[in-house]
């Protein structure tokens, strides 16, 4: 994969598309004979353009524009030479594994790190927080492929589905998340048992530990991850963890904390704060070195709890975490804030991908081999492109500030690219700024 530019220049839409094209050039192409009228590059960029513009009809509109004007936004914005049909794209992309797209995630991550943008996401002990969560993006009783997970029902029917783990960098108080390489739950060679979220998470830790661990990383996850095999895998690969820990699934640990409480060894920190409407009282309780399970080789972890109440005692929030970070009165609040940031993988990532125009759960094409996972990866990458542009592109930021509703922004993108051919992405942003009658301040 090409190395990130040594000039440390901010990403632009054009530079990201150029880099993506270079990544696509490494895609496998097993076509022969007459089945080469469209290139792999055009097929991949065509699929990506649909997700980036949030316009399922984008290519159809650009095909019409190409015939009428001799050029189109598919060509000028996304560097496509020809516009394949949807069926051509599906046929060409089915042979491509999702991991062929992953170098693009690494390239963006390295660029953000080089330019210092990751410092905005530092938290406990100056760590980056990576939240993991599994989400289903396809389910059917009629359509399936060789990579589907199968669930057999008592009535003899079978449900076929696809699920993906979507790791993202998060931070308390930061409404942005940075998507990392996903990990797909699918049948594994040499394994009789069906794949599961825990097994997929372990694969992700092993695969990306070498890439991320030296930057200082804390893994965030729900109670599903809070078990010794997962925790040991996290530690082995050089990561830290803060994980939700429910009493029902950790009997031994809570027996120990109860015993510590009886001995008066549970430390307590109480903070009273004004919300703007009323006072809330945060009660932090914590203890270090309790066993995660009932065994001689039990992993010892550090436990903390937050209960938030109103002045009349009404409980408005409660959660419990375990971590390998040592807990003190000076840092328990920060540890809990970091643990609570786990929800951003659902609220700011998975929910956005499913309900804010990316339509992750829509069947854009299932294929027989890799199409479903590849299109999902391109969809996640499109979201990452918009995140990066929102961090680095001054014109993009200005427009989003004046069109804060995501739907309005993409409605405008769809309308403009349908009727007008722009020579560049920057030209389109300039057109939008003029139309909105907002001033671009020169900060150079």
- Strand arrangement in the largest pleated sheet: 6-5-1-8-9-13-12-11-10
Compute the CA-based radius of gyration: 24 Å
Query: How much of the sequence is in beta strands?
Result: 15-25%
Return the string of H and E elements: HHHHHHEEEEEEEHEHEHEEEEHHHHHH
How would you state the average pLDDT, rounded? 93
- Considering DSSP H and I runs of 4 or more, what fraction of the residues is helical? 40-55%
Number of DSSP helical runs: 15
User: What general form does the structure show?
Assistant: globular
Distance N to C terminus = 32 Å
- Which residues form runs of ≥5 with pLDDT under 50? 1-6
The main sheet comes to: 9 strands, mixed
Structural class: alpha+beta
- Number of DSSP-assigned strands: 13
Task: Report what the structure shows.
This protein is an alpha+beta fold and 444 residues long. Among the domains are: 1-115 and 363-444, no CATH class; 241-328, no CATH class. The chain has 15 helices and 13 strands. It has a nine-stranded mixed β-sheet with strand order 6-5-1-8-9-13-12-11-10, sandwiched between helices. Strands 2, 3, 4 and 7 form a four-stranded antiparallel β-sheet that branches. Strand 11 (279-291) and strand 12 (300-310) form a beta hairpin. Helix 1 runs antiparallel to helix 6 and helix 12 (371-392) crosses helix 13. The radius of gyration is 24 Å and the shape is globular. It starts with 12 loop residues before the first helix and ends in an 8-residue tail after the last helix. The model is unreliable at 1-6 (pLDDT under 50).
């Amino acid at each position: 994969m090409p190395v990130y530019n040594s000039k440390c220049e901010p990403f632009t839409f054009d530079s990201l598309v150029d880099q993506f094209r270079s990544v696509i050039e490494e895609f496998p192409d097993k076509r022969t004979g007459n089945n080469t009228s469209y290139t792999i590059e055009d097929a991949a960029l065509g699929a990506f353009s649909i997700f980036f513009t949030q316009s399922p009809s984008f290519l159809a509109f650009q095909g019409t524009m190409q015939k009428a004007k001799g050029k189109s936004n598919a060509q000028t914005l996304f560097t496509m030479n020809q516009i394949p049909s949807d069926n051509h794209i599906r046929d060409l992309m089915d042979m491509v594994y999702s991991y062929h797209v992953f170098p693009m995630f690494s390239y963006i991550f390295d660029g953000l790190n080089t330019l210092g943008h990751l410092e905005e996401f530092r938290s406990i002990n100056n760590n980056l927080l990576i939240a993991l969560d599994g989400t289903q993006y396809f389910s059917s009783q009629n359509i399936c492929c060789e990579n589907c997970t199968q669930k057999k029902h008592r009535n003899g029917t079978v449900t076929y589905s696809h699920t993906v783990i979507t790791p993202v960098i998060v931070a308390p108080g930061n409404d942005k998340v940075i998507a990392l390489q996903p990990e797909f739950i699918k049948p594994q060679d040499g394994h009789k048992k069906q794949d599961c979220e825990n097994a997929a998470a372990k694969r992700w830790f092993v695969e990306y530990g070498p890439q991320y661990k030296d930057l200082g990383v804390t893994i965030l996850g729900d109670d599903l991850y809070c078990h010794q095999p997962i925790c040991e895998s996290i530690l082995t690969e050089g990561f830290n963890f803060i994980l939700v820990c429910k009493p029902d699934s950790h009997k031994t640990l809570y027996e120990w904390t109860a015993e510590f409480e009886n001995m008066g060894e549970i430390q307590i920190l109480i903070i009273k704060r004004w919300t703007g409407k009323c006072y809330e009282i945060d009660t932090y309780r914590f203890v270090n070195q309790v066993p995660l399970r009932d065994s001689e080789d039990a992993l010892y972890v550090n436990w903390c709890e937050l209960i938030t109440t109103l002045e009349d005692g009404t409980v408005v929030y409660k959660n419990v975490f375990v971590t390998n970070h040592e807990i003190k009165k000076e840092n328990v609040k920060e540890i809990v804030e970091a643990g609570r940031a786990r929800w951003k993988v659902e609220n700011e990532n998975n929910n956005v991908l499913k309900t804010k125009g990316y339509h992750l759960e829509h069947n854009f094409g299932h294929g027989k081999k890799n199409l479903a996972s590849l299109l999902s990866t391109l969809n996640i990458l499109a979201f990452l492109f918009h995140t990066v542009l929102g961090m680095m592109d001054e014109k993009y930021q200005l427009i989003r500030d004046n069109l804060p509703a995501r739907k309005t922004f993409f409605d405008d993108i769809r309308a403009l690219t349908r009727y007008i051919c722009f020579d560049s992405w920057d030209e389109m942003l300039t057109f939008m700024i003029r139309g909105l009658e907002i001033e671009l301040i020169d900060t150079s």
